[in-house]
Amino acid sequence: MIAMSKPRILIIEDERDLCDVLSYNLHREGYETFVAHDGQEGLRKAQMHLPDLIILDLMLPRLDGLEVCRQIRAGKQSHGIPIIMLTAKGEEMDQVVGFSVGADDYVTKPFSPKVLLQRIRALQRRSDNSTESKDVLEHLGVVLDKIKHRATVNNHELDLTPTEFRLLECMLRQPGRAFTRQQLMDFAIEEGAIVLERTIDVHIKSLRRKLGGESEFIETVRGVGYRFREGS
Ligand code: CA
After folding, report:
1. pTM reported for the whole predicted model
2. Do you find a cis peptide bond into 110, omega within 30 degrees of 0?
3. What class is the 136-228 domain?
């Protein structure tokens, strides 16, 4: 399980009253939220904060929801973020298009916050199942077996510390996704341990050294943190 802090949800919606209602309800359910009131601001915040989930209105000023969705999906760091589209009645065609540009689900306005919360939970469960429950991860010749607690690169065993193992696991679960130092710390460092964000850099350095010839698989993302290379 990813021991991350509160899941962070970005709400991109130009109706401010609706934003307030959603924020209020999501906070109450233990989510952290931030909002954007137009498409451009939304896209910028999505790429900057890399939230755990995005609620995206279809009709938005400056950049419409479909284009925002498309650009989030095309983003190197943002492409895997689950997106729920908000659509108005009578936009069925757009709903279809919304799915084809990569939204994961949609809710038709008007809706009750309860319905949206159910969809959010369902989507989270889905992405948990696809990314978190796997016991063996494999990518670019790097294999991580959680049951045996064994990591290999091109069949060559790596001697990793528990922290390095967990760091590798975190990144390997979502190759190509950039993780902030804070996210990596939350995942890899034992609860209660007091560490500085820079401590992650030390662990990463050591992990890269152990990967030897494949050290470049762990990429530095400037201003963000690190990611595991997506393709060869
Ligand atoms: Ca709107």
Report:
1. 0.56
2. yes
3. mainly alpha
- Residue 160 DSSP code: -
Indicate where the chain has its CATH 3.40.50.2300 domain(s).
Answer: 8-132
CA of 120 to the centre of ligand 1 (A): 20
Ligand 1 midpoint to CA 119 (Å): 20
The class level of CATH for 8-132 reads alpha beta
The Cα angle at residue 47 between residues 174 and 83, in degrees rounded to 5: 65
Residues with CB under 5 A from ligand 1 (ion): 14, 57, 59
- Measure 86 CA to ligand 1 centroid, in angstroms: 8
Considering the chain, tell me which residue range(s) the CATH 1.10.10.10 domain(s) occupy.
136-228
pLDDT for position 93: 52
What's the pLDDT score for residue 33? 95
Cα maximum dimension of the chain: 58
The reported pLDDT for the residue numbered 169 is: 92
The two beta strands, 156-158 and 179-180, are unpaired
Residues, the chain: 232
Q: What is the pLDDT of residue 74?
A: 86
